[in-house]
Write a structure and sequence with these properties.
The protein is mostly beta strands and 319 residues long. It has a single domain, classed as monomeric porin ompg (Porin, Beta Barrel), CATH 2.40.160.40. Helices cover 8% and strands 51% of the residues. The chain contains three helices and 15 strands. Strands 1-2-3-4-5-6-7-8-10-11-12-13-14-15 form a 14-stranded antiparallel barrel. Strand 11 and strand 12 form a beta hairpin. The N and C termini lie far apart (54 Å).
Length: 319
Amino acid sequence: MKKLLILVFVLIALYTRAQQTTMYNQYTFNKAGMNPAASGSDINQIYYFAGGLNKQWVGMDNAPRQYFFNYSYTIRPPRSYRQWQNISFYTDNDESGLMGNSGVYLGYTYHMLLKKKTVMSFGVYAGAKKYIRSIGYFDINDPAVQKNKTALYLYPDIIPGFRISDKNYFLGVSIRQLSITKLQDFKGRKIGSPSKLQPSIYFDYGKFITITDHLLMMPSMALNLPIIAPPIVDLNVMFYYLHRIGGGVGIRNASFVSATFQIRFLGNMTAGFAYSYPINQTRFGAGNSYELMIGLVPLGMASSITSKLSVARCPGLNY
């Protein structure tokens, strides 16, 4: 039993080290949080908001949990729709036992119509992160603890992003922890021993496949690629029925399998729930992880289903 617990905590340590950038099962729901270039990609959606909570390894003391909130406003030009802009606000929080962090960002995104229904987008988040060391885990009389800060503010945190999308697919890339690389502020203060924050490339891709007039399939993938650490790979497939109900399954690094259910209500509101179960040794320590998101209609639920048998619709600008 002792060896098993040691193995569990080693796996947890490796996992949290690799996951310096928070990953969500419903990454297409939180697309603008992961890549600023995705904010305001739908020109018809002037206002957008989404929020979510992820709680990992339920049942384990001080288990990791993350939450986020995103709000944006799209600025449409008065005449030509060849280009438009979006401004946004994003905040997130990650509590992982010994260490936690929270970030606050303002964002700007520029969208340009390349050709009919193909949009190229450039975006950037600029903000700050606060890292917090949990007081309860350390002996306050330890000289090493007394010499270090319990909280640090790191800024500016710049997150650039690029995205291209149309009715059939989306592809995006963003870079995180590009401008802040150490757990150390401008005055040289740090938390614990010197630690580095690895730049991480976030990549996502998805494709919309019409099965019937009422059923849409969206396979997708998300990659979190730290410069020096094992990659995190998410593979997911979602099915959407009548733009009202969505369901799907996913896998992460042969470590977790997940199931997702989303439902649309009150016109254009959507709630999403995901359950994850580890398929590695961590399942013996704590087996359940939950994720809840709510916001305006996300990717997939808003996509128009078109086929040879579909009734023609009026032209729209739903990119």
